[in-house]
């Protein structure tokens, strides 16, 4: 299936902070530069009228103002569950959210966090998935190290220090655990963001007979030699201004075509990496809502409904 650029115009009001500030934050968030370099670069914008407090308030997450679905919402029932991960860290733990009205079994969706553990934004996404009628499960890659530490900087440092292969195996184990859960009807979807987008691409390649549909948001592809295994339909969500991830797309698309994979790519205009994350200034409300509507429709198409 060919790439399908988004045709809807982006009318979201953008913050006047220069684009390079968002680019520097992306480099910092993904370990390309350290915090001191990031802060030094931001300080150069002071001469153009921006204070550090304004810059950091825009770029850094504010989870208090980002919750869309309360954990007390009567339509959902959240709880934590552990699962075995013999090839990973031995045991994993995640946030399971079940629709209150569920009778019997339903499609299940794995929700995969960014490179900083199971933060409040990702738990909120899991609740949104459950509100849409699916059983959602969001694992925390940091479980073996005490779990998400309460802030993204520390979470990022912990995750970057961990064995990547074991983390990947934890998510493979989580996917298999969720698909075989007593509430699962056997149809498994996965949605992930940034690092989580990579994990969705990886799962599609390494457990092709387990995953029924995947939605990677601005995630890099699995290793090239694995891509030929992909069978699950993919909805690839990319941001126009995300050069780092977008540079990987042409080769990935060529490999998807060679594998005769069923995929659709949506490119969201004038958006930064992380545009779906409503806790930071990178959030683009109009395109985030459109991307989420497409995600839910895609899962309903390929997984069915409860």
Descriptive tags:
Rossmann fold, 306 residues, 10 helices, single chain, alpha/beta, 36% helix, 8-stranded mixed sheet
How does this structure look, described?
With 306 residues, this protein is of the alpha/beta class. It folds into 2 domains: 45 residues, no CATH class; 231 residues, Rossmann fold (3-Layer(aba) Sandwich), CATH 3.40.50.1820. The chain has 10 helices and 8 strands. Strands 1-2-4-3-5-6-7-8 form an 8-stranded mixed β-sheet. Helix 7 links the parallel strand 5 and strand 6. Helix 1 packs antiparallel against helix 2 and helix 6 crosses helix 7. The chain is globular and about 60 Å long.
Report the CATH architecture of the largest domain. 3-Layer(aba) Sandwich
As residue ranges, the low-confidence spans are 1-15
Q: Compute the number of strand runs.
A: 8
Structural class label? alpha/beta
**Whole-number total of structural domains:** 2
**Number of DSSP helices?**
10
List the strand order in the largest sheet: 1-2-4-3-5-6-7-8
The CATH homologous superfamily of the largest domain is named Alpha/Beta hydrolase fold, catalytic domain
Query: What is Rg?
Result: 19 Å
Oligomer: single chain
Tell me about the biggest sheet?
Answer: 8 strands, mixed
Helices and strands, in order, run as: HHHEEEHEHHEHEEHHEH
Overall 3D geometry?
Answer: globular
What's the CATH class label of the largest domain? Answer: Alpha Beta
């Amino acid at each position: 299936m060919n790439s399908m650029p988004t045709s809807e115009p982006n009318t979201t009001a953008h913050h006047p902070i220069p684009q390079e500030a968002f680019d520097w934050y992306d480099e910092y968030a993904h370990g390309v530069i350290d915090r001191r370099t990031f802060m030094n670069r931001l300080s150069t914008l002071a001469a153009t009228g921006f204070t550090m407090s304004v810059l950091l308030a825009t770029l850094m997450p504010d989870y208090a103002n980002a919750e869309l679905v309360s954990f007390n919402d009567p339509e959902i029932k959240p709880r934590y569950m552990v699962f075995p991960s013999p090839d990973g860290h031995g045991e994993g733990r995640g946030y399971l959210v079940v629709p209150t009205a569920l009778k019997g079994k339903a499609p299940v969706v794995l929700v995969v966090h960014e490179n900083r553990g199971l933060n409040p934004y990702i738990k909120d996404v899991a609740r949104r998935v459950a509100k849409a009628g699916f059983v959602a499960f969001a694992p925390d890659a940091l479980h073996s190290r005490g779990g998400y530490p309460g802030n993204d900087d520390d979470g990022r440092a912990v995750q970057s220090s961990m064995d990547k292969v074991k983390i990947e195996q934890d998510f493979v184990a989580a996917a298999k655990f969720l698909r075989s859960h007593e509430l699962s009807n056997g149809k498994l979807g996965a949605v992930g963001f940034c690092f989580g987008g990579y994990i969705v691409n990886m799962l599609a390649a390494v457990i092709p007979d387990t995953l029924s549909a995947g939605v990677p948001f601005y995630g890099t592809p699995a290793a090239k030699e694995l891509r030929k295994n992909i069978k699950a339909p993919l909805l690839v969500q990319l941001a126009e201004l995300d050069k780092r991830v977008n540079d990987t797309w042409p080769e990935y698309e060529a490999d998807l075509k060679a594998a005769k994979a069923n995929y659709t790519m949506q490119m969201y205009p004038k958006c930064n990496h992380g545009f779906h994350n409503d806790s930071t200034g990178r959030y683009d409300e109009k395109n985030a809502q459109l991307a989420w509507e497409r995600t839910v429709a895609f899962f309903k198409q390929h997984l069915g409904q409860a």
